[in-house]
Amino acid sequence: MSADKGESASIFSQASEYLSGSVEELKKVSTPTRQETLQATLATVVIILFFAVCLMVLDAVCNWLMSLLT
Asked: 15-24: long-range contacts at Cβ-Cβ below 8 A with a sequence spacing of 24 or more?
């Protein structure tokens, strides 16, 4: 029975260490500025548009090739 108490105390101490470590890491987090957010959003939109155009061209080429076969 004493092993159970030691084990549960260990679980609580591990949980406490985990939570305190998490709080310390969260203190290091910084919120991006408005300009950084806009730049990241613009980069994401440009990349998505690039891949959308690539897929559109690939789809058109595949459709053209399929029309040649039929």
From this structure: none
Enter the tokens of residue 25.
């890491």
**What tokens were used for 6?**
């030691």
> Whose structure tokens read 């990349």?
47
State the maximum Cα–Cα separation within the chain, in Å, rounded to a whole number. Answer: 80
* Mean pLDDT computed over 6-10: 68
Residue pair 40/32 in contact by the 8 Å Cβ criterion: yes
Instruction: In whole angstroms, give the CA distance from residue 2 to residue 20.
Output: 27
Contact (Cβ atoms closer than 8 angstroms) between residue 29 and residue 22? no
Question: In the predicted model, what is the mean pLDDT of residues 1-17?
Answer: 73
